[in-house]
Amino acid sequence: MNVQEFSFDEKAKTELTVYLHEEKSKDACVEKRPFILVIPGGGYSFCSEREAEPIALNFLAQGYHAGVLHYHVGKFRSFEASLKDAQKALTQIHQLALETSIDIEKITVIGFSAGGHLAAALSTMAKVKPSLCILGYPAILKSFANVMQIDAPSLEKCVTNKTPPTFLFSTFEDNVVPIENSLLYLRALEENEVPFEAHIFQKGRHGLSLATKRFSDRDEMIDCRFARWFDECVEWMELNWAKESTDELPKMLSQWPIRFLIKEPENRTLLYRYFPNWQEKSVFKIIKNFSLQQLTVMLPERFAQKQCDELVAQLVDSRKGETQ
């Protein structure tokens, strides 16, 4: 393992620590590895060590590169400065990708509590964003920013269709950050058609981190059900990064929600050719969550299976043309 540290502000002790796999041979054909940027919580008062290196090392064990950001907290607390720390960290990771096996297309940010607040800010407010975002019991609302004594907007209002796909986990019983923070953020993702996966566990206090025996100093911080979030998020990342199989592409396109298909300009042109009335907002709102395959059942006289197959074939050809 190759450990490197990059200092951003010596006085405030802000820095990025990266943990890189050392490839066995420079001549070996090594695949690029994803990078996970970990942002610990602590209410902008401190950086929780339970949500820092242990998280990074767990991702490292999964074959990913990882890094931990220590940002402006305590007497140096400043949302603006902290967001700049996160942006500097992302820039540094991009630079490292030029000389290491970091896959620049697969950089994920994960943040916990206040770190989740910063991770969400990086994913919504920054010009350069991570490819995926993972939020653990995040603080989101303006009211909570006031509690943390920082000047920050309500982040659910900052979500756009440029926000990266998001994985969120929390608990209904969170005794510090009300579940409302997560629910309003998820609602904003849905309204902006940002893909997401959410796991809201009923039981569990705030700040559980990995929730396993090896990383918990008290019994109430151990929760085997909550601990499942880690394996679930790894599976979710791999799902998002999976390469499309040419054989599976027609099936995938026929079963995708129309709201995702229509995002691509080439797809939109083809879809409007078959269904010109989809350009009307009132009509599109009704059909956007259906797939083309579902429409063959709902509208067999208007859109038969043969027409569906023809349209899907055109969508496949269009997609192949983009990659050539």
TrEMBL record:
Residues 31-127 form the BD-FAE-like domain. InterPro entries: AB_hydrolase_fold (IPR029058), BD-FAE-like_dom (IPR049492), GDXG_lipolytic_enzyme (IPR050300), Peptidase_S9_cat (IPR001375). The keyword Hydrolase applies. Residues 160-215 form the Peptidase S9 prolyl oligopeptidase catalytic domain. Coiled coil: none annotated. GO terms for biological process: proteolysis. The keyword Transmembrane helix does not apply. Keywords: Hydrolase. One of its GO terms (molecular function) is serine-type peptidase activity. Pfam families: BD-FAE (PF20434), Peptidase_S9 (PF00326). PANTHER family: AB HYDROLASE SUPERFAMILY PROTEIN C4A8.06C, PEPTIDASE S9 PROLYL OLIGOPEPTIDASE CATALYTIC DOMAIN-CONTAINING PROTEIN. This is Uncharacterized protein. It comes from Enterococcus ratti.
